[in-house]
Amino acid sequence: MADIDTNIKEETVTGASDKPMKYKKRRRTAKEWIASVSFLSPSFIGAVVFFVAPFGVVIYYSLINNIIGREFVGLQNFKNVLTNSAFQQAAKNTATFSLISVPLAIILSLVMALVLEQNIPMRSQFRTFFLSPLMVPVASVVLIWQVLFDYHGVVNEALVFCGGDPIDWFKSSQAQIVVMILFLWKNLGYNMILFMSALAAIPKDVLEVSYIDGANSWRQFWYIKFRYITPTIFFVGIMSLINSFKVFREVYLLTGDYPYDSLYMLQHFMNNTFKSLDYQKLSAAAIIMCLVMIVVIGGLFIAENKIGKDVEG
Predict the structure, then answer these.
(1) Which range marks the domain in which residue 17 is found?
(2) Sequence-distant (≥ 6) Cβ neighbours of residue 266 within 8 angstroms
(3) What is the pLDDT of residues 188-213, one digit of tens each?
(4) Please, which residues have CB within 8 angstroms of residue 182's CB and are 6 or more apart in sequence?
(5) CA 20 to 30 Å from 42, out of 13, 197, 222, 289?
(6) CA–CA distance from 203 to each of 138, 200, 208, 219, 235 (Å)?
(7) 38-42, 119-123, 198-202, 223-227: range with lowest mean pLDDT
(8) Are residues 92 and 198 both part of a single domain?
(9) Same domain, 146 and 259
(10) pLDDT tens sequence across 35-62
(11) How far is CA 209 from CA 204, 213, 216, 291, in A?
(12) C-alpha 179, offset from chain centre
């Protein structure tokens, strides 16, 4: 009986002491939650005001006939955009440009990083040279390209000197190639630095063990380096894809509102539609572009996760 009374007293004391502890933990948790909400609320409010709410307005505009009548028309604006010849031309040019320039940006910058990883003469000078385009303003880059590829520019003078005929580069089938060269020249340096950082993070002992086992440079790259830099490859791909959509700045400064057919990009279509105050068509086109980007970037993330699991395995 004495033992039972003692146990009951101990349980009573323990239960009494647990209540203040649980209360203190709850108060601490509540304070932490309030502090977290206080720190996050400015960013959350800013995201709602400047991103979520405007996108909601864009969705609303894409579903009505005009901002005066405000009659609901469903998906009619989307059908009008998709059947518009200017939009089709712009989408085709943008897709062609991205499908060619983005893989080139990844491959060439990776090759440059692998070359500069070696102990070659003037390695630091080459790094500075490839990074120099990042310090040049867009207007200056456009001026350089105009001097090079104008009808009376340096490239045509060289062609005439070699016995060829001058080409109006910005009004020919080669116009998109000229812009691709500009895009690559502007972005390769940044991508190269990202790849060099990823290569430098590879454990040296893994490479040394593979070298001792007789692995050559190609096997080291494919079975070790490539697996470690896979996340960087996908990141560079996403950044290059985004930058390929931003090439409109250079094209606009080079050719204006209505360039040659092969240089008419989606941003030209959006800009010209905005100037004509056709908000319904503009909103529908913006949503279509957003959905396409979500699908493409989502596919890249899915591929990265699968390859990453394969590497971890």
Answers:
(1) 1-62
(2) 87, 90, 91, 94, 245, 248, 285, 289
(3) 888 988 998 888 888 888 777 777 77
(4) 141, 145, 247, 250
(5) 289
(6) 38, 8, 9, 16, 21
(7) 119-123
(8) yes
(9) yes
(10) 788 888 888 888 888 888 888 888 888 8
(11) 9, 6, 12, 46
(12) 18
